[in-house]
């Protein structure tokens, strides 16, 4: 949180635009239809709480910019769910167990980066605005894992389980789908479906 505050202060001192990445975890997941930017926040755990505090620091200090909430990020770099599923399916003799009762929207980091780049070039920031960005479409973690193995042509059984059956270190929202209508209309963009972006990412991973 101190780092976010310091960045906001620097932006204020230099009258600079700033874009801050936040998360779907600022919501409690009790809705059953997509969250919009003005919905009440109520994080379930420390991670979501700390990100929400970062948002508040940005809004109170930085002169102009954007807060972009995103969800279920993955890419060809670093550790993420896509790579974990591929690795486990390739080396583990046991069936995979993946939760089916957490619903959200996967986000390919490259799509998010392209959106940020477009926002920097084309959007005039009068103050701090909040936007939601993820790929189009909805999935459970089970759906996501199943799609990963199908694209990779890995024959592995996946067992759907409920959240309470795994030892999670922190509570996560059961439903964290976010509406992208605001960012799509503001930037006049079409956002790829998560299935299409997943195929793109896996193809790049294999290069």
Spatial arrangement of strands, main beta sheet? 1-2-7
Q: What is the helix tally? A: 7
In helices, the fraction of residues equals 40-55%
CATH topology title: Rossmann fold
Q: Which structural class is indicated by helix and strand composition?
A: alpha/beta
What is the rounded distance between the termini?
Answer: 38 Å
Beta-strand content: 15-25%
Largest sheet at a glance?
3 strands, parallel
Number of strands: 9
Which CATH architecture would you pick?
3-Layer(aba) Sandwich
pLDDT < 50 stretches: none
String of helices and strands:
HEHEEHEEEHEEHEHH
What shape does the CA trace take?
globular
The CATH superfamily is: NAD(P)-binding Rossmann-like Domain
Question: What average pLDDT do the residues reach?
Answer: 93
Reading off the top of the CATH hierarchy, the class is best stated as Alpha Beta
Characterise the protein shown here.
The chain is an alpha/beta fold and 207 residues long. It has one domain (2-205): Rossmann fold (3-Layer(aba) Sandwich), CATH 3.40.50. The chain contains 7 helices and 9 strands, in the order H-E-H-E-E-H-E-E-E-H-E-E-H-E-H-H. It has helices at residues 2-13, 46-61, 81-91, 109-122, 141-152, 181-187, 194-205, and strands at 17-23, 64-70, 73-74, 96-99, 103-104, 107-108, 128-132, 139-140, 158-161. The strands form 4 sheets. It has a 3-stranded parallel beta sheet with strand order 1-2-7, sandwiched between helices. Strand 1, helix 2 and strand 2 (64-70) form a beta-alpha-beta unit. Helix 3 packs across helix 5. The chain is globular, with a radius of gyration of 18 Å. It starts with a helix and ends with a helix. The mean pLDDT is 93.
């Amino acid at each position: 949180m101190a780092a976010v505050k310091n960045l906001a202060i620097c932006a204020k001192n230099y009258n600079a635009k700033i874009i801050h990445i936040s998360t779907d975890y600022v919501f409690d997941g009790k809705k059953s239809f997509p969250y919009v930017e003005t919905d009440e926040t109520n994080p379930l755990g420390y991670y979501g709480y700390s990100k929400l505090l970062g948002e508040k620091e940005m809004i109170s200090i930085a002169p102009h910019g954007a807060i972009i909430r995103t969800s279920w990020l993955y890419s060809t770099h670093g550790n993420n769910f896509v790579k974990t599923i591929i690795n486990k399916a390739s080396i583990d003799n046991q069936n995979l167990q993946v939760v089916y009762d957490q619903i959200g929207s996967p986000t390919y980091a490259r799509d998010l980066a392209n959106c940020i780049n477009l926002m920097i070039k084309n959007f005039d920031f009068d103050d701090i605005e909040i936007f939601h960005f993820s790929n189009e479409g909805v999935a459970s973690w089970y759906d996501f894992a199943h799609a990963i193995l199908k694209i990779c042509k890995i024959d592995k059984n996946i067992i759907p389980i409920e959240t309470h059956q795994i030892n999670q270190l922190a509570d996560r929202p059961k439903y964290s789908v976010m509406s992208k209508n605001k960012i799509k209309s503001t930037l006049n963009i079409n956002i790829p479906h998560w299935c299409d972006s997943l195929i793109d990412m896996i193809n790049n991973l294999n290069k």
